[in-house]
Give the backbone structure.
Amino acid sequence: MTTPTYFVTGGAGFIGSCFVRMTVSERRARILNLDKLTYAANLESLDRALHDPLHKFVQGDIADRELVGGLLQEHRPSAVIHFAAESHVDRSIDGPREFVQTNVVGTFELLLATRAYFETLDEAERARFRFLHVSTDEVYGSLGATGAFQETTPYDPRSPYSASKAASDHFVSAFHHTYGLPTLTTNCSNNYGPAQFPEKLIPLVILNALEGKPLPVYGDGRNVRDWLYVEDHCRAIARVLEGGRAGETYNIGGLCEKANIDVVHTICDLVDALRPGLPHAPCRSLIRFVADRPGHDRRYAMDIGKISAELGWKPLENFATGIEKTVRWYLDHPDWVERITSGIYRRERLGLSTSTPASF
């Protein structure tokens, strides 16, 4: 059987690189990896996949329709898996324009190029082809104390980031219904795991705890998220790609609801145990409650009944196993941390804008 080719966007980012590593190591497909290499992307995250014969990397922008169209025609993929996105809520508060450009305009241009390519395929190739769009639970808004997001939950985005992802979701759906493009959309809960850029909560807390820096916790720390180990997420994406019904949306969650303060406590205790003798121990003493994020959603939770019933997927990791693997990875990879944080990001507080910045 001929090895298929997947066109992956954002394959040097956190989730995309995990998908590339997994796909290449399992010899499932050839990967054509297009990434702009913005601040949070890192070719080192691809590990051995970077130089594997099944992997080809191209630096470029998903909004460059000529580039994307040429790559599609040259490599003839049977699927496009679209990870590329600006994804940090605090950055979207400070500067939403880049989120509109990448997440909305970029996705739109990618869809246009993919539609043009799809129309060149023969009947059998069209039947196999899929465009899988990776999105977020944040498009659904905020939950109360009970309930969970379902695929039919109305959209109610509360941040510039979630608004941009909601818009891209709608464009993907529109291209399916209007032009017959066989799309799939996945909406996932909060990802964590190795090689995540340390502006996100879990890697930020791990690294600050190691260095004796303050551990900022927004508001009262009781905001709840459903935590999904990144490898579980990538396995789910593979299942949706292989067996999902064109035009459908699938929610992906970790079944691990945790309040932010409980996540921070868990990390502190693991760092204390795995690095005994730190001069600032116990690490819980570093916790500082800070002003809450504007528009901070209170709770997210995912109903994964659809993907479980239709495709037989459930997460393999629970939070205890996943978070220990994650903490150990950061402790064991200080060189990676140093290289990826050697640019302008210094783990400063973002998302506090009260006026329109010049780059808005």
About this structure: Residues 344-360 have pLDDT under 50 and may be disordered. The CA atoms of residues 197 and 233 lie 17 Å apart.
